[in-house]
Amino acid sequence: xxxxxxxxxxxxxxxxxxxxxxxxxxxxxxxxxxxxxxxxxxxxxxxxxxxxxxxxxxxxxxxxxxxxxxxxxxxxxxxxxxxxxxxxxxxxxxxxxxxxxxxxxxxxxxxxxxxxxxxxxxxxxxxxxxxxxxxxxxxxxxxxxxxx
Length: 148
Known about the structure:
By secondary structure, the protein is mainly alpha-helical. The chain has 2 domains: 1-43, no CATH class; 44-147, no CATH class. 53% of the residues lie in helices and 9% in strands. The chain has a 3-stranded parallel β-sheet with strand order 1-2-3. β2, α4 (77-86) and β3 (91-94) form a beta-alpha-beta unit. α5 packs antiparallel against α6 (111-147). It is elongated, with a radius of gyration of 24 Å. It starts with a helix and ends with a helix.
């Protein structure tokens, strides 16, 4: 939690145990040679992919001076939009649709573009089921009124 986030700003290597998830020492990783402290001078921006906790509020609290870029699940975009307007977040990839648009913008269509087909089909099926349900309800109400 909080103490780790704060410790990362003072001594990133120690806060993370001096090794990555494969137990490779940070001193052997060229990128980490430049990141001994987690400050705006050493880390120009933080890309956050969030679907829960720790989420955007954690990063805005512990890294208020950093440029934050967010890849959000669609249901979180409304809350993150306020942070974008206030300047706390510099950019948002909004949900699967945003991911597909980003892939298309880069001219590298991938999983996001492929999954949009499935999501779109799912939305069409939901709309059709709502229509069928409403038609069934109307027929039932009409039959009930005829009997009365």
